[in-house]
Amino acid sequence: MSTRIALVTGGIGGIGTSICQRLAKDGYRVVAAYHPAEQGNVEAWVAARKAEGLDIGTISGDVSSAEDSARMVAELQQQFGPVDVLVNCAGITRDKTFRKMDADSWNAVINVNLNSVYNVTKPCWDGMIDRGWGRVVNISSVNGQRGQFGQTNYSAAKAGMHGFSMALAQEGAAKGVTVNTVSPGYIKTAMTAAIREDVLKAIIDGIPMKRMGTPEEIAAVVAFLASDDAAYITGANLQMNGGLFMH
User: Among residues 28, 34, 154, 186, which one is catalytic?
Assistant: First the structure.
């Protein structure tokens, strides 16, 4: 079998980086997609991966744009080959109470967190179906399951990701292509590290496991869903939240 190609959007972020590392260690040819505004961080990111002994490709693309996503995937496939594993990990927050939420804050989150899943999966999908093998893993959130104060935009987008997974899973099921969702709870990243200490303590106290998860734990589940061992799992939502929400 030739080396499978894995595309990870949001690939140079906290969780995205761990996913790229794990898939590369598992033998995939990994390409990390990043937003053009992150260009200044890419060289150092690639150097850090090389220092770990990992050769991970990078590609620039605005996943909120259908046109730029199509361009990005076309360039990637020309340079590396067809995408076998797609991890939709790109995401942003624009938290505000609904009373204060303007249309720009709503649309930005819906476009990056939800519309991107259509935009990037679309140009990868037909090839997976035609080849009879493929994996799509969508990184959602516990807040897409339970909702969160001040996150109507984010919760709606993350809930929509799993609706997308369940519907598309039915289209790929007989063709050897699986589509699944992973819904992390609070994960130890630079973003959560910036939370005020007393607020962070209150959050952890509310988690039955009394700790946050790690990006590596998320990456391990993504790697499993991407593997041949997970061939009979599709349309599933794997909750990884330390017992914060059970459904």
Answer: 154
Q: How confident is the model at residue 245, as a pLDDT?
A: 92
In one letter, which amino acid is 152?
Answer: T
pLDDT of residue 191: 77
Cα separation, 63 vs 46, whole angstroms: 20
**Could you tell me if 8 and 19 are in contact, meaning their C-beta atoms sit under 8 angstroms apart?**
yes
Question: Exposed (0-12), middle (13-18) or buried (19+): which is 190, by Cβ within 10 Å?
Answer: exposed
- Whether residue 133 contacts residue 86, with contact meaning beta carbons closer than 8 Å, is answered with no
CATH, domain range 5-240: 3.40.50.720
HEC profile for 176-241? Answer: CEEEEEEEECCECCHHHHCCCHHHHHHHHHCCCCCCCECHHHHHHHHHHHHCHHHCCCCCCEEEEC
Give the per-residue pLDDT at 2. 65
Which percentage of the chain shows pLDDT scores above 70?
99
34 catalytic per annotation: no
Contact status, residue 233 vs residue 178, Cβ threshold 8 Å? yes
> Do residues 242 and 207 touch, judged by C-beta distance below 8 A?
yes
Tokens of 182: 């992973």
- Flag residues of the chain having pLDDT under 70: 1-2
Cβ contact 88:116 at 8 Å: yes
- Among 95, 107, 86, 97, which Cα is nearest to 31's? 86
pLDDT at residue number 15: 96
